[in-house]
Amino acid sequence: MRAGAGGGGADVIAYLEAQGRKDLLRFITCGSVDDGKSTLIGRLLYESRMLFEDQLATLESESKKIGTQNGELDFALLVDGLAAEREQGITIDVAYRFFATEKRKYIVADTPGHEQYTRNMVTGASTAQLAIILIDARKGILTQTRRHSYLVSLLGIRRIVLAINKMDLVDYAQGVYDTILADYREFARQIGLTEIVAIPMSALRGDNIIEAGASMPWYRGPTLLQHLETVPVEDDAKTQPFRLPVQWVNRPNQEFRGFAGQIAGGSIQVGAPVIALPSGRRSRVARLVTFDGDLQEAVSGQSITLTLTDEIDVSRGDVIVSAAAPAGVAEQFEATLVWMSDEAMLPGRPYLLKCGTRTVTATAAPLRHKINVNTLEHQPARQLELNEIGVVQLNLDQPLAFDPYQANRDTGGFILIDRISNNTVGAGLLQAPLRHSENIHWQQLDVNRDNRATQKGQRACVLWFTGLSGAGKSTIANLVEKKLFGLGRHTYLLDGDNVRHGLNRDLGFSDTDRVENIRRVAEVAKLMTDAGLLVLVSFISPFRAERQMARALMGPGEFLEVYVDTSLAAAEQRDPKGLYRKARAGEIRNFTGIDSPYEPPENPELRIDTQALSAEEAADQIVARLRSEGIIDRDSVFLP
Amino acid sequence: MNSLSHLARLEAESMHILREVVAECEHPVMLYSIGKDSSVMLHLALKAFYPARPPFPLLHIDTTWKFREMIAFRDATAQRLGMDLIVHVNPDGVAMNISPFVHGSAVHTDIMKTQGLKQALDRYGFDAAYGGARRDEEKSRAKERVFSIRSAQHRWDPKRQRPELWKLYNTRKNKGETLRVFPLSNWTELDIWQYIHQEKIPIVPLYFAARRPVVERDGSLIMVDDERMPLAPGEQPQLRNVRFRTLGCYPLTGAIESDADTLPGIIEEMLVATTSERQGRVIDRDGAASMEKKKQEGYF
């Protein structure tokens, strides 16, 4: 029981100082069930002398009792933590392990390989700088290997160790290693993973874990630990522009107002010009305050408190950024979502989004696609189920300062929280803003037409069908609306006849009444575009001036004039409602084309030649045009 | 500036966690157990909120069986730092005269610690409690979240724990639910000692070797800290040079023989130690999955 005797000498103090200077490598291990992950981690803990005698004694007795190695030390038992797991012989959650060598300290996220636990792997990968992907040499690259590699690459981990394990079971054959490595490189290239170090090993026997051993003389690369000790661990965020998500405003008294947070990118010096986002207010750093005294400079990763030279309004959730390279501010994003809840993600449902220190409400537009993590194929989807990954447009209720995830994990990664259960239901990576704020001096707006339209995944506009009576306007407009509806768009069709039954029933067919008729319809259409709708107006609207008036009510690019072009003779021949006959018989007065003029559009956005196209073809052409205009295609809708 | 050291990163991460709770929770409290981990956690809180004082009280669940030196250190520390200190003793346990000697460690721990903790959290309406637990302490701890959600009955459900990505912690709770927050999750025992050394953090003198009266029980050296310790016929406390690697209730905490009376001496001993820190805790021997079970019941 007696342990050591000394009072601790200078050598211990020197040792401690050296220890204090060690750096830190966080990595994740991933692999399929039975690839030997737990054994590998247990082996690392064992070999790096992180086990004490009592733990070893427990390990020995448990190895005999419930081990899978015929009574030999079963390292997996060291890390299979929960009782439920040990009974089933699986790992069901992310576990964090710690060990150290002479050069470094390590935090290992141990994540399971089960299909249903994508969630855990993404969690473990979110803080890792390197990933060890285990492969069973007997099985080669499996579907799960691809899945894990994709997730690792998605989460921004560039450094991969391909641990080709269980080499003892394939007679340590170099050919097996070569084939697996070649296959893997081919796949990895597709997902942008290039920094791959492949190590043949046996976690069970200890080959190439710490020491090379004698089994694989053909392998000349580093052992796993040699690689972990030497791989660069520089902080990617350090080279990014300065970002400080404000966590807490420190106001111990009237004289002091400090902004506390952990620096999420770059470095900051006293005197440096900064901008607070999203307000856009500018100031300079007055002090960098810490318990151990003021600093002149602070870097990414440090938790600090800074004060500014000006009394500007900054609160929790704001981001203080470098004035030279500010972050973007936006309310609409394209994001990749990883769904983590049993309850599916539904477009249109509001969730809380936490990014940095800011929490806002986010609503997803219809999914662009989901990603089959096994084949990387894009597939259409209406919702995201547990462990599915999809690309979606998010609309926020407030502006958010952000960086794309690829540039900065902390200002580009977010979680989604269910507002009812309060559970964390998803994680996401901000990709690109869909509408740049025109100006970072952003003013808070109420819900406006753009919000309403983007919530519907579209850009509001008016399709104004004009043409002679009987030209086919209503037929085509109806078809267009059906197609848009089928695409999940939000539409409304204003038809001349229907409006005259209600809103405009006090109007006749005099020119004045015709103008008033159009004015009212145009105003209604405008209200509907404010509501974010795609409005189809099907009116003869014979006069250019009224059509021009209607056009002027809408914003640029929001009024598409569709000229349904039919010759009078053809229209008269069709005469679906028998109106031409009545007009010719003098029973109707002021009938367009007969005794009232029709002024054809000079520059319509679309001209439909009804003699050349069927109504169906015409409708398809119009929908195609809406796509090319970026009104219904999310790819291009929101480009500035 | 060079890249941050391991300790600097741990420190910054813990400060971030400490601040996140204050920013998002209504009524946080720090569970202060007086041990070395609590000392480090408290020191990190001083840093996180400087120049303000940490904006929450300290809570000590007193089982009435703590070492006397711990109690003295606790009171002196709170006074020195100007922190509010709440001491809670389970009155039911007192009424029942609960003693680890009579009722055994399992019953004692459940009533005086687990139940006492729940009572205090309910009584003061704390919605978040910091604890000094570390993931390297024990296998079921390795899977514990930094922000651990507890039901209104304070139970821990491993299946309901929320994924934690990046530095993003979900602090939202349903009515009645509370959070246990572990700012030291990623620290190891060696990190703790190194940091105490680096920061010159005061710790209870029991960690340092001194001559203390002990008796040997079931292979553990138990210190006779007061007259409540029942001695077997003929059993005589012996003065031995001992210290403690971990502190708790004195009847449940085994000492080790040692001459290490300085911090470097302690660390040197730790580096060559062959038994793990928790071995001195009788509580962990109550069954292989014992910690997991205690946590489900509401233990920290």
Layout: helices, strands, pairs:
The complex is a heterodimer of chains A (640) and B (300).
Chain A: H1 10-20, E1 23-30, H2 37-47, H3 53-66, H4 76-79, H5 83-88, E2 95-100, E3 104-110, H6 118-125, E4 130-136, H7 143-154, E5 159-165, H8 174-190, E6 195-200, H9 224-230, E7 243-245, E8 248-253, E9 256-262, E10 267-269, E11 273-277, E12 281-289, E13 297-299, E14 303-308, E15 319-322, E16 328-339, E17 350-355, E18 358-364, E19 369-371, E20 378-379, E21 389-402, H10 409-412, E22 413-417, E23 424-433, H11 449-455, E24 461-466, H12 473-486, E25 491-495, H13 496-501, H14 511-530, E26 534-538, H15 544-553, E27 559-565, H16 568-574, H17 579-584, E28 606-609, H18 615-628
Parallel strand pairs in A: 1-3, 1-4, 4-5, 5-6, 24-26, 24-27, 25-26, 27-28
Antiparallel strand pairs in A: 2-3, 7-15, 8-9, 9-14, 10-13, 11-12, 11-15, 12-14, 16-21, 16-23, 17-18, 17-22, 18-21, 19-20, 19-21, 22-23
Chain B: H1 6-24, E1 28-31, H2 36-49, E2 58-61, H3 68-81, E3 85-88, H4 91-95, H5 100-124, E4 128-130, E5 147-150, E6 178-181, H6 189-199, E7 210-217, E8 220-223, E9 238-243, E10 254-257, H7 263-272, H8 290-297
Parallel strand pairs in B: 1-2, 1-4, 2-3, 4-6
Antiparallel strand pairs in B: 5-6, 7-8, 7-9, 8-10, 9-10
Helix pairs in contact in B: 1-2, 2-6, 6-7
